[in-house]
Known about the structure:
Blueprint: H1 2-26, H2 34-63, H3 66-89, H4 95-115, H5 117-134, H6 137-143, H7 151-168, E1 170-172, E2 175-181, E3 184-186, H8 188-204, H9 211-230, H10 234-252, H11 255-275, H12 277-287, H13 298-310, H14 333-341, H15 343-366, H16 370-394, H17 412-435
Antiparallel strand pairs: 1-2, 2-3
Amino acid sequence: MLHIIISVSRIILVLLLAFYTFSCFAALSSRFSEDTQDDFYFQQTACMYLFLLIADGILFLHSFSSQIIIMTAMELIFFISTDLIYKHIYKNASMALTNNMCILLAISFIILTRLDMDKAYRQLVLAGIGLLITGFIPFLVRKLFFLDRLSYFYAAIGIAGLLIVTVAGNTAYGAKLSLSVGGISLQPSEFVKIFFVFFVASMLYNSGNDPKKIKITSLIAAIHVVILVAARDLGGAGIFLITYLIMLYAATQKLSYLLLGGVVSALGLVAAYYVFGHVRNRVIAWLDPLSVADSAGYQIIHSLFAIGTGGWFGSGLYQGMPEKIPVVEKDFVFSAISEELGGVFALCMIFICISCFLMMFNIAMQIHEPFYKLVALGLGCVYATQTFFTLGGVTRFIPSTGVTLPLVSYGGSSLMSTMILFAIIQGLYVMRETRL
């Protein structure tokens, strides 16, 4: 009986997310009136709650654990609180961005509960703490008018945070990524990305084509990247570099900077291949995973196997074997989702991630102040690049970079920093609405 319920529910879950994805893009169309768009947002919210309740119901029927009932209640409280903050306190906030954040978090809670209930509980608690913190950020973005004058403060905080990890950080999978403080593991680079965007924006927003200021900004940006390379966090270094190049091009409109940065990046990748052994292993696993099936290729082989066996509509929750993939809750959570919820579901989730970037880009284009425009663009690039790196790695489109899927993968630092990123974007959107 349970097998029949799971088989039916997986189709329903796919249809719910497909409808959500359709309404996600339809709500952004200028063809619809404001009232129609509000109807779409209401339907999105209804889809999200229905998805959450059905999926949690399946999880409960599989284990009959009272902890799942408690977590479901906590999840409902979390999402209702999010609605109250972004739909009632900040009445001009972007409903589309709020709903997208909520649906991605709902997917995260469900798949993490399936994989590891303790980690799902910790993720949910951290999300609640993150909501309490980020709930004030849109207000602060509107009220703090000196954010564009703290260039070197942002740089100092960022460089110091990265240096501490490089010197005293914990090594995992060949890179120094985290720092243990009082038994709590932190990944400072997740938060430094935000400081980095503010630094670049504050340096370039009124620089025009001033060569001196561009050189100083490029030098300090290069220091960030070099420290990350020294810590062997090449995924993080790539996010910083790509974000800087796009922001530099947006500020100067000079294609030559973008081309030069591309050449330097290509040379850096070649150098990294010869200098770092774990980079060579990842490239080999990317090119021919079967040749290193028992070592570097083990993870990507099982990832591709999971994605392939899931088919279009998935095997159903608890019907697959995603736990065979190492670190599946973090770097390879997309593979677990594809296996048990299906390729259609995974594609819809990708489109939701794309729509998040498009919304951020659209907000950036509508902001008149150059500093805030660059901040919105930079944060959007951070989100898009990290998402691309994660999805590209698990599908063997690019070598694995070891970065997490924003809002979906397990990890407190990644979750908190992404919620902060979304809150800043919301603050910029609210500020834009009030200044029109």
